[in-house]
Design brief:
With 408 residues, this protein is an all-alpha fold. Helix content is 76%, strand content 0%.
Length: 408
């Protein structure tokens, strides 16, 4: 009976070991260059297509949920996936594993920066990685589209989503795309879902016990307290200031990636004075030469302010509250029996796939238009589209080729 309950809560059809979850996400965390959609593409390729441990609908649902939550979307998606695979323990294992590689690398680069005042040159390596990441994201988007885009309405949502994000971009557009997709999905697909599911519509809330409601309420209150008291303890020890500041702002930063850079600059340079503008720019640069999200810059800031312990506390503080919020909401969102939610998710999924196409185009635009990069892209696209090759080998192999190819 307990095993059946766990399977129902997490939505996983097979019990996955915590060692598998930790090891897989540790490897992915060490190679997920290219930002949020790159990580999503690698997860889809590894867990959905190759290992078959995760359903593609679960991954799309996780993207849909975390896209409208604060904090680093990539890490929140990983926490969601871990929860789907093995409950709370799986969420913790995946969350820790995905952060460790980036944390260690940024920690080393931060030490190097403080000691020698420069960032290692990795230009050629990334010139090789970018075509591989672009090709991988594009093949994943094509694969998802073939499975989920079943009508002209789906394709219309997809196209509009992609164009809006490419031409305008920003967190406001992301919200509009997600909400618009949900509304269109409800209006266009509700009757169809009603026929398929029948009249027995269950939201899943009735399955949540009173104890779970109480625990969840306490967690929400704790998160609100972090938000209210963030950065207000100016006379407190510096490590406490770091913890309260980073944990609080983690719940206010929507959009992820480049959207949050101005807000972080204003807080740490203009308001707190922890960094100078050049130091902040160098921190963002260090974040870009690692496989982690831009939020990993917190490690760099913490190190400059208070050494190793400052780096560790800043990293834990900025990633943990949004991940906890994601897992908390995952426990209350039970979509399998709800025709309303399933209709809305049809529209949201189409919008999400449009976002993935837009990400492939956006990242592709950063490649220099020359024979070497175009050739690498075409080779990686052909391999990724035709074969279920481990994306880790694809990305690292392309990066190593870039080291040689672009040094000529």
């Amino acid at each position: 009976m307990p095993e059946m309950t766990k399977s129902t809560e997490t939505g996983s059809t097979e019990k996955v070991s915590l060692l598998y979850i930790f090891w897989v996400f540790l490897k992915l965390g060490a190679t997920a260059f290219g930002g949020y959609m790159s990580l999503v593409a690698i997860v889809q390729k590894q867990l959905v297509e190759i290992d078959k441990k995760l359903k593609e609908e679960d991954l799309l649902d996780g993207i849909s949920l975390t896209s409208v939550l604060p904090g680093p979307v990539a890490v929140n998606v990983i926490a969601y996936v871990g929860y789907k695979l093995r409950g709370v323990a799986g969420a913790m294992a995946s969350f820790v594993a995905i952060i460790i590689p980036s944390f260690l690398l940024v920690l080393f680069l931060s030490w190097f920066y403080v000691s020698y005042g420069s960032v290692p040159a990795v230009k050629n390596f990334f010139l090789g990685i970018t075509p591989a990441v672009t090709a991988l994201i594009l093949t994943v988007a094509i694969g998802m589209a073939r499975k989920n885009m079943k009508s002209k309405i789906h394709w219309a949502i997809n196209l509009v989503s992609m164009l809006l994000l490419i031409l305008i971009g920003g967190i406001q557009v992301t919200f509009v795309v997600m909400i618009g997709g949900a509304l269109i999905g409800y209006c266009c697909f509700f009757k169809r879902e009603e026929k398929e599911i029948g009249k027995n519509d269950k939201s899943g809330l009735a399955q949540i016990s009173g104890k779970q409601w109480g625990i969840s309420a306490c967690v929400v209150l704790l998160l609100l307290a972090l938000l209210l008291f963030a950065g207000q303890q100016t006379e407190s020890p510096i490590l406490w200031q770091i913890a309260s500041t980073f944990s609080g702002i983690s719940l206010t930063l929507f959009g992820g990636g480049y959207v949050v850079i101005p807000a972080l600059h204003e807080l740490f340079v203009d308001n707190l004075g922890w960094l100078t503008s050049p130091e902040f720019a160098d921190g963002i640069a260090i974040g870009q030469v690692t496989p982690g999200p831009i939020f990993i810059t917190a490690t760099f800031i913490g190190y400059l302010v208070a050494g190793f312990w400052g780096a560790l506390i800043a990293t834990v503080s900025i990633f943990t509250p949004p991940a906890v919020l994601t897992v908390l909401l995952s426990r209350f969102i039970v979509i399998r029996d709800s025709k309303v939610v399933k209709a809305m998710l049809q529209g949201i999924r189409a919008a999400v796939i449009g976002m993935i196409f837009a990400s492939a185009i956006t990242i592709g635009n950063t490649m220099p238009l020359e024979v070497r990069t175009i050739g690498l892209f075409l080779i990686n696209f052909g391999i990724s589209y035709k074969y279920n090759l481990n994306p880790i080998f694809l990305i690292l192999g392309s990066g190593l080729i870039g080291l040689i190819l672009f040094a000529i």
